[in-house]
Amino acid sequence: MSVAAALLASLLLLFLAAPILRLVAEGGVEGISRLGSDAELRQSLLLTGATATAATLLGVLGGTPIAWLLARREFPGRAALSALIDLPLVIPHPVAGIALLLLLGRESVVGGAALDLGLRIVGSPVGIVAAMLFVSAPLFVSGAREAFAKVDARFEGVARTLGDAPWQAFRRVTLPLASRGLLASAVVMWARAVSEFGAIVILTYNPKVVSVLSYDRFTSYGLREALPVAAALALLALIPLTLLRALRAEDGRRKGQR
């Protein structure tokens, strides 16, 4: 590597790390200490974790069959389906929130029907889950598709020749072999859901997830009050990243043992 390339790489690394390190240094200790005294921050963190987990579970349940289909089958419209699934990744997230509001708002067919059944979507945790699911599920589908593609299809064929039905071959062979990739994809989805702001703030400003609370404290009270909340969110993001690195390190050790 040339000196110029090393310098550019170092500058980029510094640019990526410095804001987060400064944020945690400025507000990390106060953010953690406020967990005991700031009930709104505590509730916001719990709401963020719970809704992100619910969105991830829904994404895994619905995304796994789609990922398997995209990895294993050739069919007309496969490229269009892939593009459709990836679309939420490339549109601005406030736009995603507006699109969801059109579909799930009180005046819409879906939102109105849900309201008639007693299920309020906009302005409730359900709306937060919907926003998180919309923006983060494509990451799970993409990762899961790669995980399924890495499993040799001949293993499923062997299971079928031994009498397994397609579903049994999937459950007994493909799913276990792809499980670590699926878990890593779910972790990435959860992390993305936790950090979402733009779509959530359109659908559900209250109750506040921690990203919305950070914005609310900043606009209402200024930078000083927003720092502990923002630092708490940054520290929360370390949990899935640490888990993801641990999974990848374990995969590396397994490959090294083969």
Helix proportion: over 70%
Distance between the termini: 31 Å
Q: pLDDT average, as an integer?
A: 88
The SSE order reads HHHHHHHHHHH
Given the helix and strand composition, which structural class is it?
mainly alpha
Q: Could you tell me the number of beta strands?
A: 0
Range of strand content = under 5%
- Biggest β-sheet strands, sense, barrel: none
Q: Which regions are unreliable across 5 or more consecutive residues at pLDDT < 50?
A: none
Rounded to the nearest angstrom, the radius of gyration is 21 Å
Number of helices: 11
Tell me the overall shape.
globular
Describe this structure in words.
This protein is an all-alpha fold and 258 residues long. 84% of the residues lie in helices and 0% in strands. The chain is built from eleven helices and no strands. It has helices spanning 3-34, 39-72, 78-90, 93-104, 109-116, 125-149, 153-161, 166-195, 198-203, 210-221, 223-257. Helix 4 crosses helix 6 and helix 8 (166-195) packs antiparallel against helix 11 (223-257). The longest helix has 35 residues, at 223-257. It starts with a helix and ends with a helix. The model has no long low-confidence stretch (mean pLDDT 88).
Structure summarized in a few sentences:
With 258 residues, the chain is mainly alpha-helical.
